[in-house]
Sequence to fold (185 residues):
Amino acid sequence: MAREDGKRKLTAPLAVLNKYKYVLLVAALGAILLLWPTGQKAAESGPAEPSSPGDRADLAQTEAAMEEILGKISGVGRVDVMLTLQSGGERVLAQDSSLRYSGSVQTPDSYERSTQPVTDAGGVVVTQETYPQYRGALVVCEGGGNDAVRLQVVSAVSALTGLGSDRIAVVKWQSSPAAGSADQD
Fold:
């Protein structure tokens, strides 16, 4: 009888395991997928501000060029533009690398690796260039109170930056307090 009780103790958990084997398999696969690395770095998840003086200068040049072109749209008047970056641009340069070692090839005593950018007559060779991705745009202009002007400005900024209209704010330029009090008299 003790033998039969021992068999029952072993077969009962196996019967339950056999009954729910597919459920347990799906749960295990789900846990594996949750733990699977995505390949994204933590720095890529948040917004990036211009990190180098070159990035800030490029952003300022872009804003100035946009102010100039938006100011030419009928009804806009004076205009200021502010852009925020999701990620900055990047240039990948062609590299010439060399490896020097002493001793045998299989077990070198020491080695030294050096890399230099590849240049041609025009300067450094760029193999890949990514442009900045914008997070949002703010346009302050005298015609910002007019819906037709606002639509034209949003369309222009969207075409220049790739931003959707939900990421572009166009607002009316504040009139000076002195002019406001003079108008009230």
Summary: The first strand starts at residue 79 and ends at 87.
